[in-house]
Write a structure and sequence with these properties.
Elements (H helix, E strand, L loop, with lengths): L2 H36 L7 H26 L14 E4 L31 E3 L3 E19 L17 E7 L7 E7 L7 E5 L8 E8 L9 E3 L1 E11 L3 H4 L1
Length: 243
């Protein structure tokens, strides 16, 4: 990976982790107070108290790192297929097929955790997809991830989504609630986080992503990963997850 790509990734990580470090500091202070309240200084010397605090702190850091490594955003993805998210409909969107007549990857790929160059859902022009989340969620943000332009052939970044909107649905025939209109910046970080513009008091299990255009590719648009963030209401995890 080239140096400027690494710099871009480091900048992204620093931005995303800054708030987490503040949260960790507050949590450490709380843990330390709990330790002091939970031990009798007459029975435990200062070395023992520090040992307990160190073990608690290490576990907290380990848990935070593992969670961030799994999500990349520090926020749970309620659309993730391995958690029980699923594709409901693509609203008649036409998959793009190569000259050999084969499609690159199915729409299922956009709710999978692996993002590699070329492994995307490719479709002609604009498109839409309806996703069933793992439960009813009060939506607060969404994320779109594309492969870095530095890892793609020259000009290939033009197939990245540009303008898109996100909708909450009660059913496939529902007009829906529009959470806002957004734009993916191909000059920004590969993974971009968008806070919703129009909040709703309702929780939704069906979310529709409408991609209106791309950055200049006249043949097809390529979507790698779409995430949905928020606060869970009533989880309806699949049998696989519950086991």
């Amino acid at each position: 990976m080239e140096v400027h790509v690494l710099k871009q990734e480091v900048h992204f990580l620093k931005t995303e982790l800054s708030n987490e470090l503040l949260n960790l500091r507050d949590q450490f202070q709380g843990d330390f107070s709990n330790v002091l309240r939970g031990v009798d200084i007459g029975d435990y010397n200062s070395r023992e108290v520090l040992r307990i605090f160190e073990e608690t702190s290490k576990k907290t850091v380990k848990d935070q790192i593992e969670f961030y490594d799994a999500t990349k955003t520090g926020h749970l993805d309620f659309a993730l297929g391995s958690l029980g998210g699923s594709i409901v409909s693509t609203r008649g969107t036409t998959d793009y097929k190569s000259h050999s007549g084969t499609s690159a990857h199915s729409v299922q790929h956009i709710i999978q955790s692996c993002v590699m160059p070329g492994e995307c859902w490719a479709f002609k022009g604009s498109g839409a997809v309806v996703i069933r989340l793992i439960g009813k969620v009060n939506i607060t943000a969404v994320s779109i991830e594309h492969v870095s332009r530095d890892l793609l052939p020259k000009g290939a970044i033009k197939n990245a989504p540009k303008d898109f909107s996100v909708w909450g649905l009660d059913s496939l025939n529902d007009k829906g609630h529009c959470f806002g209109n957004f734009s993916y910046d191909i000059n920004g970080n590969p993974l971009q986080y968008f806070r919703i513009q129009e909040a709703s008091a309702n929780s939704f299990q069906l979310i529709e992503l409408k991609i209106h255009n791309n950055h200049g590719n006249p043949t097809y648009t390529c979507l790698y990963r779409f995430r949905v963030h928020g606060i869970i209401g009533h989880p309806t995890l699949t049998q696989t997850v519950s086991n």
